[in-house]
Design goal:
Distance between the termini: 34 Å
Largest sheet: 5 strands, mixed
Number of strands: 5
Order of helices and strands: HEEHEHEHE
Number of helices: 4
Radius of gyration: 17 Å
Strand order of the largest sheet: 2-1-3-4-5
Structural class: alpha/beta
Shape: globular
Helix content: 25-40%
Length: 162
């Protein structure tokens, strides 16, 4: 008798892989962030990536990061992957869910994460750890009992031919 295959993806590899793949949908020329929300029994509930709201053309709104006029920069128009994933969810509740995201959530996304009942955040990069937004995010999530930790990369490579 042949046993089961042993080199399959762990749950963390699978869900972070989905978040990474989701981020590849982003049209942002600088930062592509993806998110995957998972139920306590390891079912994918929702996904999202950073971009403009539905109906706002990514050809007409700006992708610029710098400038004097905030209305000519992406920040006032773009929706982060975490908020997109929360808003994309069509079920009844995200209470108790886990959120996998490629970049640590900002303070605004942390508010939404806390409010909808997500209990754990697994993130890949924390490159903005020292910014007020991320410091505030960590303070709020800690106060609200939302656990967070960095994904431990396995260095496994997966090749997908599309």
């Amino acid at each position: 008798m042949v046993g089961k295959r042993e080199n399959y993806l762990s749950w963390d590899e699978y869900f972070m892989g989905v978040a990474l793949l989701s981020g590849m949908r982003s049209k942002d020329p600088n930062t592509q962030v993806g998110c995957c929300i998972v139920s306590p029994d390891n079912r994918i509930l929702s996904m999202g990536y950073n971009g403009f709201p539905s109906g706002c053309s990514d050809d007409e709104f700006p992708w610029d990061r710098d400038g004097e006029d905030p209305l000519k920069m992406k920040y006032v128009y773009s929706t982060h992957s975490e908020l997109n994933a929360i808003l994309n969810y069509k079920g009844t509740s995200l209470s108790g869910a886990r959120l996998y995201v490629t970049l640590f959530p900002c303070n605004e996304c942390a508010k939404a994460i806390i409010q909808c009942g997500i209990r754990e955040v697994i993130y890949d990069s924390d490159k903005y750890a020292e910014t007020p937004s991320v410091v505030a995010s960590k303070r709020m999530m800690t106060a609200a009992g939302v656990k967070f930790h960095q994904y431990q990369r396995t260095k496994r490579e997966i090749k997908i031919q599309l």
